[in-house]
Each structure stands twice: as C-alpha cells, then as structure tokens.
Amino acid sequence: MRARKIPSDRRFTATHSWVALAPGQNFSDFPLRAGVTDTALDDVEAVRLELPAVRSTIEAGAPCALVWTSARSAVTVHAPISGLVTMTNEDAVANPQLVADDPFHRGWLFAILPLPTSSAYGLLTPAQYATELSEAV
User: Fold this and answer.
1) Strand stretches in 9-82, DSSP E
2) Which of 51, 66, 71, 96 is 20 to 30 A from 88 via CA?
C-alpha cells in the first residue's frame, strides 16, 4: 500500500475521482483536467483505459471511464463535474500504468469544460477527502 497523496489544487468525490482547479478559482471558462485517485487504484496494474469521447457531455456522478486492470477487473471512474469533454490523455491511453503510478499529474484521464450549471456542491476539499479516507479505514 502506497502513501496517499492529496494535492491541494484538486477537489474530490467520495468515489475517488478528482478535478484540478485553477489557483483561487472554483470553475473557469477553460477545460479542467480530471482523473482518478491513487486510492481507487491501490496496488493495481492498469492495462487499458476506456475514456469518454471527445465532444461528449458527461454528468457529475455518472460513470464516464473505466480503468482495466491485469486482474481482468475494471475500476469505474465517475465524473467529478458536469461538462463537455475537450480532450483525453493520449499518453495514458498508450501507457495505462501512468494512471496508477502518477494519477494526479501524468496520469490524468480527460479534460472537461464545465457546464454553466456545474457546481462545486458535493465536491470534497483536500482536507475533507483526507478525513473521508481516514474514516473508511
């Protein structure tokens, strides 16, 4: 089991997905990177990704991606916010283990342009997410 990393520039969901925020902002007029935390991928070997299609709209809390593991199981990624998918991480598609090895940086999954109706309601701050993790143990 690896040490948990909880970056301060992210907001989290209880289902272990994240969205990166611009400094001092909640949402913006440009796409935000999103991914899955190391908690969801604890000690797995990622072998394949199924990411949402570029130009598709995803809804907050809905399943939007899969990370397939060497154990032939899949980790479901839920959308942290609602929005339009503007790009996917082609480096992670080519090397899925990036998602497990560096989930908050090189292993991001997709970028999402928040819908005007998107809200931070329900997203956890780093401190709240850390508390949630400690209570789950």
Assistant:
1) 10-12, 17-20, 32-36, 46-50, 57-58, 63-69, 74-78
2) 71
Give the list of residues 6+ apart from residue 128 with CB closer than 8 angstroms, or none: 12
Ramachandran area for residue 93 (φ above 0: left; ψ -120 to 50: alpha; else beta): alpha
Whose structure tokens read 């991606």? 65
In the three-class reduction of DSSP (H, G, I as helix; E, B as strand; rest coil), residue 30 is classed as coil
Indicate if the alpha-carbon torsion angle 118, 107, 90, 68 is positive or negative: negative
Exposed e or buried b per residue across 59-85, where buried means at least 16 C-beta atoms within 10 angstroms of its C-beta: ebbeebbebbbeeeeebebbbbbbbbb
Which residues face 77 on adjacent strands? Answer: 65
Per residue in 62-79, pLDDT tens? 999 999 999 989 999 999
This prediction has a pTM of: 0.91
Query: 14-33: per-residue pLDDT in tens?
Result: 999 999 987 666 676 789 99
Q: How far is Cα 50 from Cα 73, in angstroms, rounded to an integer?
A: 13
The two three-digit tokens of residue 35, written as one number: 């991914």
